[in-house]
Amino acid sequence: MQARRKPGTASFFRYALLSLLAMVMIAPIGWIAISSLRPPEEIFLHSPQLSWRTFVPEKIIWSNYEMLLASDFPQAVLNTAFVAFVTVVLGILICSAAGFAFAVFDFPFKNALFVVVIITFIMPFESIVVPLYIMVRGLNWNDTYFALIMPEVASGFIIFLFRQFFVKVSRELFEAARVDGASWWRIYWDVALPLSWPTVVAGALMMFIHQWDAFFWPLVAATSQDLTMVQVAIARYQQFEQADFGRLFAAMTVASLLAILPFMALQRYYIRTIIDSGFK
């Protein structure tokens, strides 16, 4: 007679496997962070053969971070933080209002327009970068904060998330507010938007991460040194002939930490929103 497995055995092996996979995925990031504290001659010294020396530096230095602070990287961080903050504020207002309209109102070509919204976040950005740049240049926005912010304000995916949330809200709640004399704007601002707090947080997080990781469009739209974004600044530390790997890894570590911290703090809202939206 086969022995019955204890209820906790399956959970133990599952968590052990997940922990192993997490370590494998985190290992390259950890190596980059550790290598940013190494002298240049030691960075790749123990990397060909994996051992404990690969992840434990023989000597720790801070000169890579000192050079990073003395460069234009802090200005790039501030630029990216400003662009991401403004994009999040404007984007949440516009995307939540659009999602509310798609969920509550009936208007001509509603379904067709919603299909267009879905297509916008399926279509690769590279396919529209040329006409987008022509449009931005026609508005005299090239090499300005407007070029970095405005094209990212309306996100089809965020509109989809808000629409999916507002569809599940009882219509009787909105009708009761209308009976009490509230306008649709008042219903959206005082009733619908506060209820969608998890979606607001998740949408803000996704828009922030998107702007923080943006490289191609900032490289095209903002060539001024004063408007350099984080990913563009990181790329400049790598040249064709040689790269300053110490400062490059230091910049990558700082940029990753600044993006990971808000995600770790708000990840439960992100997961809850994705599950509730039915998007898989």
Task: Please render the helix and strand layout as text.
Layout (H helix, E strand, L loop, with lengths): L6 H29 L16 H4 L7 H8 L2 H32 L5 H13 L6 H10 L6 H5 L6 H13 L2 H9 L4 H12 L1 H16 L3 H6 L8 H6 L9 H33 L3
Helix pairs in contact: 1-14, 3-14, 4-8, 4-11, 5-8, 8-11, 8-14, 11-14
Would you write up a description of this structure?
The chain has helices at 7-35, 52-55, 63-70, 73-104, 110-122, 129-138, 145-149, 156-168, 171-179, 184-195, 197-212, 216-221, 230-235, 245-277. The chain starts with 6 loop residues before the first helix and ends with a helix. The mean pLDDT is 87. It has two domains: 7-61, no CATH class; 66-277, Orthogonal Bundle (MetI-like fold), CATH 1.10.3720. With 280 residues, the chain is an all-alpha fold.
CATH topology of the largest domain: MetI-like fold
Helix content: over 70%
Number of domains: 2
- N-to-C span: 42 Å
Residue runs with pLDDT of under 50 for 5 or more positions: none
- The CATH architecture term of the largest domain is Orthogonal Bundle
From the alpha carbons, calculate the radius of gyration and give it in angstroms: 24 Å
Main CATH class of the largest domain: Mainly Alpha
The fraction of residues in strands falls at under 5%
| Shape field | globular
- Mind summarizing the main beta sheet? none
Mean pLDDT: 87
Structural class: mainly alpha
Summarize the structure.
This protein is mainly alpha-helical.
Comma- or semicolon-separated keywords:
2 domains; 14 helices; 0% strand; 280 residues; mainly alpha
